[in-house]
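Course assignment 3, question 2. Fill in each field.
Student: A.L.
Task: Predict the tertiary structure for the chain below.
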Amino acid sequence: MSKRYYVYIITNKPRGTLYIGVTDNIARRMQEHKNKMIEGFSKRYSLDKLIYCENYADVREALHREKMLKEWKRIWKIALIEESNPNWEDLIEKDIFIV
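Answer field:
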């Protein structure tokens, strides 16, 4: 099985504060966010709902996509999220996290 890398967006509520990150283990990373184990922005704003996720086989592609999304305007990010998750459901709880 080949390694996968995930670019993800988390929030605290629908249309709330957004955080974009990258990881090689989305389940573990979401546990860290939900349990406030990661110091910094996501902990400060209680960002623990996985609302968008893409997966990649190449870490360079994932890092490039993360950087690109971070440069997007907020309205573009919201449109991207709502295209696949219009109700802003926590995808990790539904086991639907690979887009």
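Instructor remarks: The chain has a mean pLDDT of 93. The first strand starts at residue 5 and ends at 11.
Grade: pending
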